[in-house]
Amino acid sequence: MQTSTQHKTALGHLRILDLTRVLAGPWCSQNLADLGAEVIKVERPDSGDDTRSWGPPYLQDAAGNSTGEAAYYLAANRGKQAITVDISTSQGQSIIRELVKQSDVLLENYKVGQLAKYGLDYDALIQIKPDLVYCSITGFGQDGPYAHRSGYDFIIQGMGGLMSLTGERDDLAGGGPQKAGVAITDLMTGMYATIAVLAALTHRDKTGEGQYIDMGLLDVQVAMLANMGSNYLTSGNIPKRWGNAHQNIVPYQTFATADGHIIVAAGNDAQYRKFVQIGERAELADDPRFLSNPLRVQHRDILVPMLADMVKRKTKNEWISALELAAVPCGPINNLEEVFNDPQVRARCMQIELDHPKAGIVPLVASPMKLSKTPVEYRQAPPLLSQHTEQCLRDLLHFDDEKIAQLKLDGII
Questions:
Q1: How would CATH label the architecture of 15-224+342-409?
Q2: Which Pfam families match (predicted)?
Q3: pLDDT truncated to tens, each residue of the chain (413 aa)?
């Protein structure tokens, strides 16, 4: 079992007040927690983060009984302290303000203008904490004609162009737009927000100034179009879906083997020749229609079916072994059982286990950040709802037992 170790952390001097829920915001705050920051996750009393109930599957204890902790929630909330506060009440708002005074960063993903009703917007909070870094995450940003719309990853993938690029070609069976298998826009927003927060903190440390960060999912999705966005802006041509094929290179796609699928990425003529030789179709290397990559692209509809038939004659492992030996870029398409049993994934320690108060242990996916001097720290499992409320109020705000009991009775915490 991997547990927290004592070492210097990169962000151990920071406290993050996290008013976010679901994925984009919690992904950002989990990054910061992994790097050593103290993260206080603020949730609604009774129900908490929406993702706590987004199951099954739920974490099970040693006897196989459900703990009620949804796997979705567990994916994005390790290393945090969890408190519950009803911020719609004046007493709850007062608690948040007192915590802000002792925090470096506030993260939130409420609808545009919603926190202003509670006096918890940036303009209000910098009156009590001038150097606060305040990061808002919304679907469409704080301005523009869509600012007040709710933003969901799936919708943003469609609106932001990703689904126009993802999926099988329209002229083939199963063609049409397809979303990514994970909420990639949420995750990338969390990553961009992490970078923005760290940049703002660097500026604060140099100048003493806090600042406001406006993160919009649609902005992120447009930014991450990367070369495809640049291709369009440069040429004016609208890119099409190519499924698992490449529009400029052949063969550079998936193929079905006798017992699974592989990816072959033959980026030059020599690699293509080795590929067909291994497949016992060496004549395809000398066919005048396929002598060069431009010719193979031109005649892809003739060549690819022949390659597909060739690949089906061997198993996935037979192909991978032979192609790797010949230095032809290739790889399997693994299911998640195969991923977590992969020797490279295991060597890189990409699965961890942390102590959990209900389940005994909880298995989690590790952070990919490998820092030599300030490695990531896995201090605790994703917290139970309100697990740290009393401790936080006592240690940071110096509330006594009587005051805490009254706040509970009043439904404030």
A1: 3-Layer(aba) Sandwich (3.40)
A2: CoA_transf_3 (PF02515)
A3: 334 445 689 999 999 999 999 999 999 999 999 999 999 999 999 999 999 999 999 999 999 999 999 999 999 999 999 999 999 999 999 999 999 999 999 999 999 999 999 999 999 999 999 999 999 999 999 999 999 999 999 999 999 999 999 999 898 888 999 999 999 999 999 999 999 999 999 999 999 999 999 999 999 999 999 999 999 999 999 999 999 999 889 999 999 999 999 999 999 999 999 999 999 999 999 999 999 999 999 999 999 999 999 999 999 999 999 999 999 999 999 999 999 999 999 999 999 999 999 999 999 999 999 999 999 999 999 999 999 999 999 999 999 999 999 999 999 99
DSSP state of 200: H
- 161 alpha-carbon distance from chain centroid: 19
Q: Decide: 42 and 83 in contact? Cβ < 8 Å.
A: yes
Helix/strand/coil for 44: coil
| Amino acid at site 127 | Q
DSSP secondary structure letter of residue 42: E
Q: Cα separation of 170 and 241, whole Å?
A: 7
Per DSSP, what are the bridge partners of residue 252?
A: 265
Is position 143 annotated as part of the catalytic site? no
CA 177, 182, 186: angle at the middle one, nearest 5?
100
Domain boundaries, the chain: 15-224+342-409, 252-256+261-332
Distance CA 349, CA 280 (A): 39
Determine how many CB atoms are found less than 10 A away from the CB of residue 5.
9
| Bridge partners (DSSP) listed for residue 263 | 254, 331
Q: Is the Cα torsion angle 126, 130, 135, 141 positive or negative in sign?
A: positive
Say how far apart CA 53 and CA 90 lie, in whole Å: 28
User: Do 197 and 32 touch, CB atoms closer than 8 A?
Assistant: yes
Write the CB contacts of 288 (distance below 8 Å, at least 6 apart in sequence). 295
Catalytic residue among 34, 121, 186, 219: 186
135, 143, 129, 131: which is closest to 115 by C-alpha? 135
- pTM (global) more than 0.90: yes
CATH architecture of 252-256+261-332: 2-Layer Sandwich (3.30)
Task: Report DSSP letters for 42-93, one per residue.
Answer: EE-TTT-SGGGG--S-EEE-TTS-EEEEEHHHHTT-TTEEEEE--TTSHHHH
125 HSE (CA, 13 A, CB side)? 32
